[in-house]
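Good day; I would like, with your permission, to put a structural problem before you. The record follows directly beneath this note:
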Amino acid sequence: MSHVFSSQDTARTSRTTRLIGAPVQTGASQGGCLMGPDALRTAGLAKVLAELGWAVEDMGDVAIERQTPRAHANPSLHDLAETCAWIEALETAAFEAAQACDLPIFMGGDHSLSAGTVAGIARHAQTQGRPLFVIWLDAHPDLHTLDSTTSGNLHGTPMAYVTGQNGFDAYPPLKASVAPENVCFMGIRSVDPAERALISAQSFEVYDMRAIDETGILAPLMTFLDRVRAANGLLHVSFDVDFLDPAIAPAVGTTVPGGATFREAHLVMEALGDSGLVCSLDLVELNPFLDERGRTATLLTDLTASLFGRRVLGRMTTRF
């Protein structure tokens, strides 16, 4: 059952969004991410977006059936059958949502969900005759194949899968893929040797935290957005909680010190919103079990509001 949220000022409502819950935690090493979608709902995401003039429809959560375990040559893999089922379900949900609204939001759930959502949005972009670009806001590039992962945590594989790398015969066949040169990794600071080799061999655009320290976060982002615009591309944003510094966003099972600050993160989301290029958004790896009084879910809601048009001059200010 879906729920519709609308602004009292209906005259301002000109764009549509759908909220799709993806309570996936089989790709991660610890439980809790399945509560992410409800945490974002509790934080008031739908209400905030409606107040910004968007027509919001909450489509509820995607679900999968119980799966029969599947073996793989890499014995470290776990929950392979469940991950494949999630990919298939979310690919369809993402494609349908992108066809039906202006900017769907996929609320996770661990980052393995993006193997499905990005694949579905890529299929949507293909029907539009436009290239899909992806900005991956994450401490990790998630470029492992099913053979290279040693942890067996499949949230480390989605970007390798959607860019058509070898080693994914066990995953559902891609209906559309993303060209490596159309991917921008921003904020990464934890890269395994196999991922580093793949980055070196292909044309991914990468801005790690050292690059951001040296140049600031806006200059490389604008360079990438200029490329998307020049190609008449669509842009998918995949936002992992561990893109943020854990001091401001503790609710993630893969904390890596030295992440984006509060203002850097808002600047990124504001610039993305200003670009008018974003067609879809993942919010992933939110683990409410690790949160502190909902602060990470609230921050994600506020960052999403920045992407959807909230600006300082549009809010009430306090006089001191």
Remarks:
- DSSP finds ten helices and nine strands in the chain.
- The beta strands are 3-5, 15-22, 54-61, 105-108, 132-137, 183-188, 205-208, 234-240, 278-284.
- The longest strand covers residues 15-22.
